[in-house]
Each structure stands twice: as structure tokens, then as C-alpha cells.
Amino acid sequence: MAIWFARSRNLVSSLRQNLWLSTILVKRDYFPRPVVYTTSRLSSTAFLGPLTSLRRESTAVEKQLDLVQQIDVDDAQELDFPGGKVSYTSEMKFIPESTSRRIPCYRVLDEDGRIIPDSDFIPVNEKLAVKMYEQMATLQVMDHIFYEAQRQGRISFYLTSVGEEAINIASAAALSPDDVVLPQYREPGVLLWRGFTLEEFANQCFGNKADYGKGRQMPIHYGSNRHNYFTISSPIATQLPQAAGVGYSLKMEKKNACAVTFIGDGGTSEGDFHAGLNFAAVMEAPVVFICRNNGWAISTHISEQFRSDGIVVKGQAYGIRSIRVDGNDALAVYSAVRSAREMAVTEQRPVLIEAMTYRVGHHSTSDDSTKYRAADEIQYWKMSRNPVNRFKKWVDDNGWWSDEAESELRTNTRKQLLQAIQAAEKWEKQPLTELFNDVYDVKRKNLEEQELGLKELVEKQSQDYPPGFHV
Amino acid sequence: MAALLGRFCRKLSFPSSSHGARRVSTTACESETGKPLNLYSAINQALHIALDTDPRSYVFGEDVGFGGVFRCTTGLSERFGKNRVFNTPLCEQGIVGFGIGLAAMGNRAIVEIQFADYIYPAFDQIVNEAAKFRYRSGNQFNCGGLTIRAPYGAVGHGGHYHSQSPEAFFCHVPGIKVVIPRSPREAKGLLLSCIRDPNPVVFFEPKWLYRQAVEQVPEHDYMIPLSEAEVIREGNDITLVGWGAQLTIMEQACLDAEKEGISCELIDLKTLLPWDKETVEASVKKTGRLLISHEAPVTGGFGAEISATILERCFLKLEAPVSRVCGLDTPFPLVFEPFYMPTKNKILDAIKSTVNY
């Protein structure tokens, strides 16, 4: 952890200069300072210092800091255990269940889209900013149109990313195309950024012959090996330990790339979250874990999900560097993900990002969230805390956008989407044989027999089966 | 050819491949020589060969670094390095999930679950992820390089959590393969096939045989094909089907039955999913009788699948109901193990009552 600080990149050194942040971050997380124990009275709010010894081999900088520790702490006060040396105390103190202040949230843009003075951020030029805005707007239009298509019965299911456009697009913009993405399911913007077309999205939603997934999964379960975006699966958090394995593979191949995986607040309660973070840390795998803390897991509010200060505090429990970022601030997300990605790749370590946001839409088309949350709460986030509007203001203020451009973009995107949907709807269906392919690498006798049996049945009683599936 | 020390310390030999009928032991081996090896050593050899022949293969799991609790991974970490052979945290879902990720990137991930009894936390990753990885992605992705090894089965004193045979759970999952070897020579060849098969495989190793079974195992790199059952003993009156350590017991029952004039045909299924229906069907069409034996509890055990399939295919040829001699429908007990197990005499009784039906 201390190595990162010692490198003193612009972002880091300006963080240190920001005294307010340094008192929180530096003290708590980054400096393994000598722990000084007093004989003061027991206090439940007493806070023990940060982790001291680490089992793994120290780097040069850490060895220096260890020396510092040894100077200040009496050797006789230390005990040797399998995990390393640890100072002891005769005073019985419990680490409190939470810190007195919540971990603060890194942000760059205020709600009016103005850069907060003295912010640390990685600059985004006009070309990148405009592309980011366009993609955020495109994602909004796409979500709206596909949602309506489901309501009209044209597709069976859909789930939106409304309110999380900044996380989707800004994180994607911060990555390299070689970084392997293992999504949960509310990150289609990452695939959009990488070049998946509106037609390709539509094809998967309709499960037609052009769907790369061959119509086998529900809508929104996109996947594209060309875009290094692993196929989405419905079970929550299963991708997290897989991401650790992917990261390890990239590490072994010495690739200039990392694994990037997404999870929601709810998903962090799954065992696979624990498994994924622990493995990535122990294996020193280059993985960026991005948690979209949007406040809701279907109808379960985060107050019913965990008792910790969100997700960011869990990073340290695994020995993972972590940051909390305003997920509705595209510039902050971009900087955080970009920095995390660099750390992951250059230091071969996992990093955890908790992006704070709000799920404006319902969980999915099978959900009506007004049943469990106030309509005005939704409205507030939709209007006043809208990440797309916020970024738009910044882009506008820079003179990089205009009302004409806005109207043109939205109109064209809407038209393109409607066309994509019409085309996808009319497209040929998958041939029936695709029901039986890819269960294994080659189709075995057992499946060949079943396929034959089914073909005969379909030919005999075609009225029992939906039309259009060529035998 | 093969000398196998059974649990009752009787020397057994498997028939040599002289009969030439369908699928009798014609395992491709350049020579029948080799060293006498026990099961864990044969598996160790297979792993050495696997890692040697593919630089992108990895072996990991709990305690595999020092050689593993059953010594199957001895010498691997020293020879191939800690980057390729390593201990993992104690977390089966993490082990398998990590393995899926590695395999999805084109590597061979040979994963060890310390006891099959502990595989269940990984069940979600195996069923919902590994088994469906290729299918759900439209073949854009696959984790075919994943092989999960786990010791299974009775060991004499294992009780609930060191004796389980969970193969039936996995045989119900399209997309994975389930393989169980009966002996050291079979284990080496089958494991190499599993590792190199482009599908995720669960490989259950009969822990009872780790030390107990000793056999001539060729030292070279060889593979035994998956989904091919083997008739290891020819006969005319009744077909017996089994896998793993149970075959040793069944072999003894066949020898006893022969003394009473009953000619038994014994088939080693080897691969349970996808299983070789044709070999079993051909045998039952010849003998007209079928007996299946496995340690796992009888209800819902894999014997039920074999029984139902053979009934469908061979109904008119059957002279008697299909017999299943299996574990009882209880958790695997400790002091009651000798009563729970499908013993030689239970099998012999079932052979006789099936033949005399």
C-alpha cells in the first residue's frame, strides 16, 4: 500500500496535499505507522492502528517502513505469530464496529457540472468527453426504447441501467480494450463503449439467428469475445472468483491488461464476493473490482444488506486497496478506474472501487419499484442527481456540445434503435439444431438421438410448437 | 496383467485382452510393462505429464503445494514452480471459480477438491457456470480446460464427511463430464484424457485405492478414451455394471458366482456422463440380466439412470428385473459402515436371485 504513495504521481501527491483527505486516508489506510499503546482507561471508541505486519514478502519501501517501526517500538513488546510480528497490549480494546466518520466519497464535478477547485483528476480532452457524453446519452435512449419494447410484448425481458450511465461509460472509457470484462448484468454501457452495435444488442434481446448467444439465454445476457466481454449469467457474483482466475492468467502471460469485474451492492453478500476478493489478493492478480452501490437489490435496501460502511471498508479486510467514488460523477469514475487499472497492471494487485449511485429504474421489467420505495425518492435521483445531465453541463460549459448536437444525437439514436428492433424482430430464428449444439464441444450420440426424436415430433405435430425454427 | 489388492486382501487379476469381443480391455499401451504403482502415484505421474506437456496448465487447491493430503501432487511444485502449482485459500467455490476463469482464458486448470464431501460449495460454479459456459455464450467462450479432481468413496473409517460418493448429483448436469477410474493404470490414462478433453470434467478418485491398489502402470504418456465402457470380464448369464473401487468387490462376487456355475459379465463404466449405453445394452441383450452396484445411496443413485435406460432399450430381452446393490438411504455411517456398504455377499445374493428369478 505504501508503495503507491511513494510513487507520488500527480494525483497521489495532490491527494496528500489536500490536508483534509490526508488526515482520513493517510492515517487510516496507507501508512503502517507504529502503533502506540497507552494505559488509558478502556474506551469502546478507541481505535487501534492499521494493520501492521503482512505475511507476504515486503517490497523495498515496506522494508524501510518496517525499520521505522522497529525503531519506535520496543522489540520486547512484540509477539511472533504465524502471521508475523504483532505488538501486544495489556489494555483490552475492541476495534469499534465502525469508524467515527464514513469513508468519504471521491468526486470531481459538483452537481452543477463544475469541477470542484483543487480536485485531483485525470484530464479528459474534448474528443473523449464528447464520446463519453454521446455514449451515456445513447445508453439512456437504448434503455428507454428496449424497456418500451418489452412493455409492448416484443421482447420477453429487459433491465435498464438508468441512473448508472456514468459508471457504465466512464469506467469503460478508462480501460484498455485488452482488459477482460466480467460483468454482472447492469453494465451494457461497457459493451456499448467497446463497439457492440445497437443491432447486436437487439439481436440478443430477440434471440434471433444473428444473436451470438444463439438464443439460449434471456435478453440482456450479452457476451462478446471480440470485445473481451464475458457472457453475462444470471447467478449473482459468480463472476468474481472467475475474474481472479482471468487476472491470474493475464499475469502469467505478462499481458498489459487486467481483469475488470462488476458487482452490485447486493452481490457483495454472496460467498463468491468473499472468494473472489480473497483469491485475487492472495494470488496477487491484476483485477479491478467495481461495485455499483446503487442502494437496492431488487426490493432490498442496503440497510438490509450489510451493517458495514458500504463496500469500500471490506477491501482492507482482504488486503485490497480500495476507494469510494461518486458513481454519478463521470470524471471521478474515469479517474478512479483509470488509476485503479494502472495500479492493478503495474503492481499486479487487485483494487476495489465502490461507486456510489442510485438505481433509478426498476430492478427489471418484472419489477415495480414503487411498491417498495417512495416515488418522490426515485424522482429526486432521476432529476436532481442525474449523472448524464451533470456531465452534460460540464461538456456544455466547455463549449463542446450544443442543443443541435443533443437533438440530433437523440433523434438519430432513437431512429437507429427502432430500426434495429424492427430488423431484429423480423430476422430469421435460430435453427432447431442450435438447441443441441455447444452442450459439449462436439454433439454426442445421446443428443443426436434426442435431436432426431424432436425433429420427428415437430414435423408430425407442428401445431404444438412455435413456428419459424427450421428443422 | 494387473494385480489389485482388494479390501479383503485377496489377490485379484483382471482378464487379459485375449477374447476379442466388443470393448474388452484393448487399452492402447505400447507395452504392458511399467512400474508397479499405487493409485496416488499413478495420478501423480499423470499430473507430471500434464504439466510437462502443456506449459499453460496449472494445478491448485488446498494443500497441493507440499504434495497434498493424499500425496497426489508430490513433486509438482518443486518441478514446475509455485506459479503453476500452488495452495489456495480454503474455499471450494473460490477454487472452482478461479479455475473457470483460468480455463476461460485458454489454460488447463487442474483443480483439487480435498474430499468430494466438500465439493458442494462449488456446486453453483460447476452447475451454473462451468457446465453452461460454452452453451450460454454461443460457443464464444468455454472453460473446457477445467478438470476437477476429488477423492471419493468409503475408506473404512471416513464417516459422513470423508466417504461420500456424490457422482449422481453431477451426472444430472448437461455440459460437464463425470469420470471415475477403477485402478492405477486406468486412473493415469483417464485423468490425462480428462485434462485434455475440451469440456469441464469432474474426476472422482476412489480414495480407498490410493494406497491399496497396486498395478503395472506404463511410464509413458497415454490416454484412455472417455465415454467408452470396458467389459473387464466376459460372461453369459448376467451383466454387472459398476465403477471405481466397487468393481473390486463386484469382481470377487463374480468369482464366487462362477464357483456356483453362474457366468458373470463385468463392465467398468469409467465415464458416467456421458455414459456408454451401447456397450451395456449389447451386454444385456446377450445375458438378459443386469445388476448395478455403487456405494452411493440407492435412491436417486446413478444406478437408477442405468436401470431406466436399459429397461427402455432391452425390455423384451430381460429375464429378470434390474437389480441394484447399493448403499443404504442414510448418511454414510461410521461404526455401521460394514452394514451400509454393498458388500460382496450382498452382490452375490443379488446375482443368484436375479439368475433364479
From TrEMBL, chain A:
It is found in: Mitochondrion matrix. It is an enzyme of class 1 (oxidoreductase). GO terms for biological process: branched-chain amino acid catabolic process. Pfam families: E1_dh. Keywords: Metal-binding, Mitochondrion, Oxidoreductase, Potassium, Transit peptide. It comes from the Eukaryota. Its EC number is 1.2.4.4. Heterotetramer of alpha and beta chains. This is 3-methyl-2-oxobutanoate dehydrogenase (2-methylpropanoyl-transferring). It comes from Cardamine amara subsp. amara. The lineage of its organism: Eukaryota, Viridiplantae, Streptophyta, Embryophyta, Tracheophyta.
UniProtKB/TrEMBL annotation, chain B:
One of its GO terms (cellular component) is mitochondrial matrix. GO terms for biological process: branched-chain amino acid catabolic process. Pfam families: Transket_pyr, Transketolase_C. Its main location: mitochondrion. Its cofactor is thiamine diphosphate. It comes from the Eukaryota. It is an enzyme of class 1 (oxidoreductase). One of its GO terms (molecular function) is branched-chain 2-oxo acid dehydrogenase activity. Its EC number is 1.2.4.4. It is found in: Mitochondrion matrix. InterPro entries: THDP-binding, Transketo_C/PFOR_II, Transketolase-like_Pyr-bd, Transketolase_C. Gene3D superfamilies: 3.40.50.920, 3.40.50.970. Keywords: Mitochondrion, Oxidoreductase, Transit peptide. It catalyses: N(6)-[(R)-lipoyl]-L-lysyl-[protein] + 3-methyl-2-oxobutanoate + H(+) = N(6)-[(R)-S(8)-2-methylpropanoyldihydrolipoyl]-L-lysyl-[protein] + CO2. Residues 37-212 form the Transketolase-like pyrimidine-binding domain. Heterotetramer of alpha and beta chains. This is 3-methyl-2-oxobutanoate dehydrogenase (2-methylpropanoyl-transferring). The lineage of its organism: Eukaryota, Viridiplantae, Streptophyta, Embryophyta, Tracheophyta.
